[in-house]
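pasting for ref
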Amino acid sequence: MPADIRGQDNAKRGLVIAAAGMHNVAMSGPPGTGKTLLARVVPTLLPPLDFEEALEVTAIHSVAGTLEGSVIRERPFRSPHHTSSYVALVGGGAWPRPGEITLAHRGVLFADEFPEFDRRVIEALRQPLEDGVVTISRSRGTMKFPARFMLVAAMNPCPCGSYGSKSKMCLCTPTSLLRYQRKMSGPIADRIDLWDNGKNVRLNLLN
């Protein structure tokens, strides 16, 4: 629970606001400021799965071969590494299987080092964030997997992590900083409702 985490009051408040409405949230801050720890408590802020949701989540994990036990009763928390392949995240293969995006259905998808994900993967989030589904097209047909989740993205302010710091000098060139910031396109940024830099919480609910 957030109450068990000392400090970061603004960040904790932002996550409570986000969880109350299943709003997508992005956290920005230097390495070591607790972004991952904060993200891991988000599922505890969400209401428990109801019976139908539990069956839905269980069926997905059964198909994907990740089911442990009988019925899943806790909201999923998926944290894929930023080097994961497009198929691992989105799903697919010769016989299409759900990827991490679908495995996070009804739960939380935590994308640490968000700008470091492959640009193609980041852009693939547009459809599930908008429609709650992932569409995979193959020569034999098209499949749709459910993917209604809460996105929690975490990122450093720049590639070296020191941009804006009062104690460390940023070593990034203007070109690398611009390239880093452009990894997240406008359409993706528009689908993130709340931005939290640890000091200020900004809602992005109006386009």
